[in-house]
Input
Amino acid sequence: MQGVSSLVKSTIPNYLSSLPIPDSIGGWFKLGVKDWAALIPPTAALAGFTYITYRAFCPHGRPAPCGKVNPNILKTNPKVVDSVDVEDIADKAAFCRCWRSKNWPYCDGAHGVHNKETGDNVGPVVVKREK
Output
């Protein structure tokens, strides 16, 4: 534990203070080859840390969803078609568009989990009765 404390309190600050970082933009053009070589390790460490953080929090780092939209609703049918009479709908109804609802064809909120897993933004179709 004392080694970590020494590293954080003295070794790293001393190393960083010894780096040839110029005070002005023009100073960057006056750096020599040895100065540029001294800047490579901290730059590589910062780039690696940035890349790892980006991959951890970026949606591109997650696996792509499978190509099928309908995972399990009426898979024995060649085409899923549902029909609902307007008279059978109350004042308002929400119909599923993500194909994950357990109450098909009505929405049960399953699109929330689907959206979180895939980065999608699908939601229900809401039908309202005119008065």
Notes: The chain is about 40% helix and 5% strand.
